[in-house]
Amino acid sequence: MMKFAVSSKGNPVSDTLKSRIQTYLLDFGLECDEEEPDIVISVGGDGTLLYAFHKYSSRLDKTAFVGVHTGHLGFYADWVPDEIEKLVIAIAKTPFQIVEYPVLEVIVRYNDGAKEARYLALNECTIKSIEGTLVTDVEIKGELFETFRGDGLCLSTPSGSTAYNKALGGAIIHPSIRAIQLAEMASINNRVFRTVGSPLILPEHHTCVIKPLNDVHFQVAVDHLTLLHKDVKSIQCRVANENVRFARFRPFPFWKRVQDSFIGKGE
Ligand code: NAD
């Protein structure tokens, strides 16, 4: 029997919708299982789906996600509350289709020999200094590529390329392309300091390692979660072996979502 979980943004509209979805699915004979769901229905916005992704990130091969938005159209949350009945019937009655998107693996290593920390990001990882300019070496495939000085670096997934990465002038990458993108935040470029200045798109297996040069304390954000990392030796980013799996019940092509979100229908 299929097991489901519903996660809500926590506002009244989303909570009401969450109970309706739960009631419907239980009526259809599905089992509610918060710990080991086969499908997670996220109700709220993209932030709610990011939260759900992290809650179940240790079982991405077993849990599929679907997002309902109670605010504006989301990239991950693309169902509207009016379609709930349709969605619930689809979940209950049909073996659903799965689309898989790549995610980003981030490994933070420390100087003091502390155990490394591993994260998976659905959107991106951003690296900033706690105070002043971030100064780091950027290695690609084990070779020094550049020394970066500036506000920070953003390593994003293809599905996250429409989020923070886009605001940094990064390209939008179709999620069928297994890659990560490195985008700069306000790099210092003059006759002394030089960075490439363009976003870079790295294929699978091309690992990018960020190594501190002066400061070793960093503010590292993985999606919505920002953590302070002290005594950092390196931050390694690459396409993860794991994928995120979305349950698809109707076609809603990526480029259509990009158009709906950023261009609209016009006058
Ligand atoms: P939030 O509430 O600040 O929302 C950020 C916005 O980003 C929301 O409108 C959300 O719909 C949108 N968003 C999230 N993922 C997206 C995606 N893959 N494509 C297009 N839009 C997307 O924060 P939150 O809800 O906790 O989301 C965290 C995300 O916010 C981070 O992963 C980062 O991508 C984004 N962010 C963006 C900027 C920026 O654009 N300058 C700055 C900080 C964080």
UniProtKB/TrEMBL annotation:
Q: Which Pfam families match?
A: NAD_kinase, NAD_kinase_C
Is NAD a UniProt keyword of this protein?
yes
Catalytic positions are 46
Which residues does NAD(+) bind? Answer: 46-47, 123-124, 149, 151, 186
Reactions catalysed, as given in the entry: NAD(+) + ATP = ADP + NADP(+) + H(+)
Q: What class of enzyme is it?
A: transferase
Quote one Gene Ontology molecular function term.
NAD+ kinase activity
Function, in words: Involved in the regulation of the intracellular balance of NAD and NADP, and is a key enzyme in the biosynthesis of NADP. Catalyzes specifically the phosphorylation on 2'-hydroxyl of the adenosine moiety of NAD to yield NADP.
Q: Which HAMAP family match?
A: NAD_kinase (MF_00361)
NCBIfam families cross-referenced by the UniProt entry: PRK04885.1 (NF003424)
The name of this protein is NAD kinase
Annotated organism of origin? Bacillus sonorensis
Lineage, broadest ranks: Bacteria, Bacillati, Bacillota, Bacilli, Bacillales
